[in-house]
Amino acid sequence: MKERRYNLYLMIGVFAYNVFFSVYSILRHYLYLTAGYDLGIFMQSLWTTATGEGFFFNTAEWQDLGVHSHFGVHNQPILLLLIPVYKIFPYAETLLIIQTIAIGSGAITLFKFAKLCLKDEKRAFYISLMYLTNPLIHGINRMDFHPVGLAIPFIFLIPYYFEKREYIKMFLTSFIILSVKEDSGLILISLGLMYILRRYPLKEFTNPRKWKKIFLENKIPTLLIIIGSLWIVVSLFMVVPYFGGEYPYFSGKLERYGGKIYFDNIVVYFIVNIISTAFLPLLNIQLFFSSLPLWLEIFLSSHQPMVIIGTQYPYMLVPMLLIMSVYNLKEIKNAKIIIKKVNEIQTIQVSLRKLVGVSMLSMMLFSPAFHVIDSQYIWGMPIQKMVPLYINGYPYLNMIDEVTETLTKTNYTIATQNQLFPHLANRQNTYYLLTYFGNGYIPNNSLVVIDTVIPDYKPAFKYFTNYTKTHQINFQLLNTTELILTCARDDIEKTRECIHDKLNVMLQDLSDEQTK
Q: Which end of the chain is least crowded, N or C, by CB within 10 Å?
């Protein structure tokens, strides 16, 4: 009975995580801090598919790459499962809450695995607490919506089913993981390598002449490696090309590999990963080598966000580090720090509770949701800044919502800035004034919607100004800031009426232009 209390503590922790990060991520959206890249991409892709307007069509990837389906950029078949849900609840909040629940559930599946492996509910709870307080996990949750977050709870089920020798369930689970993205095969490769390295010295494994014997003696781990490798090959050279031509990150259309390497980011990123897992992955260096494919994918990228705390990219790396931590904890009762003095050796026992304290300290320092110091290596506004910003800005934000909700219901072609896009994403004909990769588009007879208060206004408006100087097009410019300030009244209802009246006049003018 005493041991079961940790299961209750875990449920409380997961519930608190889900509530907090649902509020946090939705609050970011209400503050117009989410963006077309990437929340808007998935919203528009799901909307066009659910309404029969295309197969995961979105204007961002059409503008950047000329593809007519998101599958021409990333192979993410798990999105098919979200279509029925999004058709019923076509809101940004739907995707943000689903992602949060999936990530929060990772603590439960990690607990199941750790409890099975360690035979100790208390230690399993502590390692799950390290997961819930991990700043990089918070970063995945913070970064708008990405299907990769849905894989995390299933990643911990791979070692769980492996230890129980339930291999059919393990392989079925692996296919769910693979469905989140083309690179997800790397986690199966790393897990397969880990199980082989647990049995053989690294020196023996690096001898090619012994590979055949090693792989034959480790059929299940070898199958994980093969399945993971095949998924990557099929995705990159068959699925993505089928929908859009050459894989964009190989073609040079989108720069990700082969350019600048951000060494300072790499050092910080590595240190934060290790501190947030309380150095546990380093207790067995040989086992640590199995995570090398995941580190290399991130570190060799010339795409700086991949080595920033506060993005979705470590969705495989963090679970892998925690899985290794569980196996390392299995081999020790408590960690020891040995201090050598003159004629004296002092040993300090370090309990898992203290290690969790290290992880929680890393959360306060590095989590995008809590960090107390600003840093170029961390993306994200902490909650202590977001709440007062929302309270003070609510009247203005509410009026922007009025405008975007009205425009969403129209059929006009709209070009807008990146951070306004998610609020206008449930339409086929909403375009970007300027995409994340620097490609803009202003269709003829379109409504150009800008807001000067939203952070990405300047680059979008600069592009708009230059574009209209060199292209002869008809357009209507809607500056929501000017509209709201012009209509500002002491009475909120009168402000709302004024906004709708002026907006209707502008839309009527646009309609008249289009019918000429």
A: N
